[in-house]
Design goal:
single chain, 84 residues, Ubiquitin-like (UB roll), 5-stranded mixed beta sheet, 2 helices, 23% helix
């Protein structure tokens, strides 16, 4: 099972902070997961596909959209952060 976390403005936009989801058939990468969530849920969910506004971490390490998933990871979607 994937443990999916949504942080900051994404949490507010999507209306949830977390969920547990079985890796959908045919979904093998982080990008495919974002695409699956966007296409199957509609509404605000396509926000996950915006690579300029959403970063992804797997098991607390930032990864690119081609990162492979096995179905047992923690996946976090979050907006880019700034500091100062």
């Amino acid at each position: 099972m994937l443990n999916i976390q949504y942080f900051a403005s994404l949490r507010e936009t999507l209306g949830r902070s977390a969920e547990v989801l079985a890796l959908p058939e045919g979904v093998g990468t982080v990008g495919a997961l974002a695409d699956h969530l966007a296409s199957s849920r509609g509404g605000a969910w396509p926000a996950l596909q915006d690579v300029t506004q959403v970063l992804v971490a797997v098991n607390q390490t930032i990864v690119d959209r081609g990162y492979p998933l096995t179905g047992t990871e923690e996946v976090a979607f979050f907006p880019p952060m700034t500091g100062g």
